[in-house]
Design brief:
This protein is α/β, with parallel strands linked by helices. The chain has one domain: Rossmann fold. Helix content is 38%, strand content 16%. Helix 10 links the parallel strand 7 and strand 8. This is ParA family protein.
Length: 302
Amino acid sequence: MPRPTAKLTAEDLAPVSDPSGPRKIGPTGRPMPDLPEVLPPTKTGPAQVIAMCNQKGGVGKTTTTINLGAAIAETGRKVLLIDFDPQGSASIGLGVQPHDLELSVYNLLMQRDITPAEVIQATKVPNLDLLPANIDLSAAEVQLVQEVAREYTLQRVLEPIIPNYDVILIDCAPSLGLLTVNALTASNGIVVPLECEFFALRGLAMLTDTIGKVQDRLNPKLEIVGILGTMFDGRTTHAREVLDRVVQAFDERVFHTVIRRTVKFPETTVVGEPITTYAPSSQAAMQYRDLAKEVLARCPAG
């Protein structure tokens, strides 16, 4: 499985002299890099597996998973979105009703006779598939405790489909329990959506501690792809100060792209599709396309 590599160098980020003047300063207070246009892939797989993780709820994690997946799928890459939250929010956000599911990711984890092909569903978005979840997944947290090598269960079931996709995104539950540890063990990268407010910032230290333990004990290949500022309102001093503190602490690990607050995101949940298809020319859609460029630059796929 390929390992994420941060391809943006200090030279890329430095202001440059050109006929149009210095590079634009982005919302993170750093010059915006010149990201290359994403070319269509020449082949499919093996997939980059990226966990979207933050133990604090309400930080835009599921919204980011759906819209980042859709933006990457627009580049021609084959993307699988795994709903790994018993609330099934990612499934709902892609138009699937969790209570109507006959098979979900729970069955794939706990029943050896179930194959990924039986559970994976195509979505309305070309190149984007979904491995859905519902409340049954909450039982897996308890049942997996009795299993041998319980932290590797998700990795085991994903192994056969790694060659079939370019990117696999795992929407983790807002906790640091056994399901999240499974997601981190199965991944080779992690994206941390972070709401630009103080309490979200406090929880980041706990998350980085958990990531360090997983790296040491279970998955040495795990790397932080980037930290993403979400729900950003540049009009408030508080949001700007929080984002500035994150950049000071994590420097180039913080994405240059920032996702701003907009009324469009709740609307997309109601219609069950990503912002890239619901409002393709909106600023929010453009921000997720920029984020897709950054993620693919750090984790080359296809």
